[in-house]
Batch of 2 targets.
Target 1
Amino acid sequence: MGWWELNADTLARSRFVVSPLAETFACLKLLHAGDAAHPGEQEWLRAHLPVYRAYLAAEPVTAQLVRAGLGRQWIADFLTPAPRDGESFGDGVARVRATSPDAARAHLRTALAGPLPAGLVRDDLPERAAVLLEWVWEATVRPSWERRRRVLEADVVARTAQVSRGGWASVLDTLRPGRTRWLGENRLQVNPHEYPPREISGAELVLVPVTVQRAGWVAWEDGVRYAAVYPCAGALAHPVERSVPTALGALLGPARATVLVLLASPMSTTQLTAVTGQGLGSVGRHLKVLRDAGLVERRRAGRSVLYGRTAAGDALAAAQPRPEGRPAPVAGADPWPWPGDGPCRGTSIRLMTNVLTVDIDALAGGPANLAQYAGQPVLIVNVASKCGLTPQYTGLEKLQERYAAKGFTVLGVPCNQFLGQEPGSAEEIAEFCSATYGVTFPLTEKVEVNGDGRHPLYERLVGFADAEGHSGDIRWNFEKFLIGRDGTVVARFSPQTEPESAEVVAAIEAQLA
């Protein structure tokens, strides 16, 4: 078996890291294998496998690189750099691209356990690998990254709770059953293969979840960082693939219906909060209503309380609307159009409430005086310092620099509701933003954006729907609202939408025109 030796200090400092590059490589492995572990993966493969195979058919050298690099027992090391905390996909793939040609060829020879094919004796292998990973990210991962990240963070929440209940050994034994195991005497088994042990005491140990159920590997930067990548808990692998029926959403409300649908598998309130992006208070209220209605029950599992659907809840979630014809119009009446009819299809109703009349304090204390922005576009963003999306501060500051002279501003609203990712004081937040990202745009006081304590500013914002039809609770850090010159919301963008994306820039420039 392959095992690592580590001291108590290394184990005590170990932590979980969510990595977009690791998730992307896991999806590449799934595409390469073409073998799904569950219906959610099968549906994903049906959507993406034909395009992936067409891509490789047009790039025969890259296809050969994939076959060589994804060996049966060993992956070429340069394809899987050890994930770093808070690293963006772009920064991660840049490390792949920066690999020397000699190192890439050596890693491929190790993966093949033999000489390189003639077609791979070339210097552009790191560039080809980086381009392939960028394609997998853009085509198959980035569109669903927000959902994937929530699933991964929910797994981290569950594993962290497991550490508090049963210690690190209980977690390590269940990362990849049969492969990872705490052996005792400072030894961690990382795979079943007969490889020489590694001494990693004093280095950084990170545990990295991915949503692909048969994925898992180890990676390292010798003496600095060691990573064990593992598939997240099966019950959390694709929870949002369980779509909410339209009729159920209309009956219960979209947020409460989402909770009911997700409870096909038992989950805790903390897991539901991480997966849905709803506030803990909101999830608690939904669960109470569902329990009172006999749709959900709760049971204790050790120190955890898990919620699951009752038979009545299963029946309601599985019910299909009965097709009905349209009622005949009343003679002489001018009926409202049915959903989907005419030019109204796919549009959202614009909220005509002026949001800039709300009182909110500035980060440094005292009123922020939102009225000072009357007559100019404002991009309002709930921000956090310890989130995987925190690098979006860079793009937000670039928008500020580009358009401030034209009468535009970004307004950052710190919030600590999503896994405690904005824990600092006002002074610490200001120092972090200035020193790390050179932020010059204004920041407000730290507030709540969901639940009973939702700030009045967000009470006025959340009713507006984005281009995908989402309205209601803020889903995660860095959700964006563009306020027009008249003080009303004109656009909403998901957390994963980059500040400098074409749709955000176009919306801002339309308001400045």
Note: The chain has three domains: 1-233, 242-318, 355-512.
Target 2
Amino acid sequence: MKIRLNCLNHIFLWLLLNLANSVNCYAELSGNLTGTTDYIWRGYFKSDGKPVAQANIDYEFKSGIYLGSFASTVNFADHGFENRSTAEFRPYLGFAYKLSDDWRFNTAWTRYLYDGKIFGQVADYNEFYFYSHFRDLLTINLNFSENSYQQNHMSLNTEITGRYPITDSIEISSTLGYNKQKKVLGYDYLYWTSGLTVYFSRNIGIDARYYGGIHASSRKEDILYPHWEFHPHVVDNRIVFSISVGF
């Protein structure tokens, strides 16, 4: 697999890694493995409606700096194209800050890396995240890319997620989001999810979740970029099951 990172990414990565190495050596390592019946992302499929395997590893320093990587199998349904992507990697670096006993703030950078192409084109790109958390009950996030999927246009996504623990081992949660990708994917997506998570132990959990959405707006067919055919339709009325094992 050939990983393509530009000079800016190398500099940013070097600076943050050196900053992390300079702080207190105390750190916490965590990770998880997940099997899920679908990979749904901000209103559209990244798995063509098929099961995927996912993994995440995270290393957090006492200072609030954290780094890690997410990985998942993918299927963009670009049959007929050569060198199709089958895996997505998302290394990330961020900083978490506790504003008060109730409020926390996170900011992060991530890089989407694919082991091949998407509909015949290289599609690696950066994204920047800003999170605000109220206790463990509410999360508001804003994320944007300056060059989403390397299509020379910005993208913007906003989400609000609410959670409520019914018991120590059962939690319900819902998300409402808006994914502004019309200039890149042909559509803007308004999407929502709602589900139930059950924890059998501290490190094992299962999740059942409903996904819905609509096309909030779309580009006219005659001005869609003809050189790229990735225009995923919105996910509508889908139930996804997953099981996760962590450490």
Note: The helical segments are 7-22, 182-185.
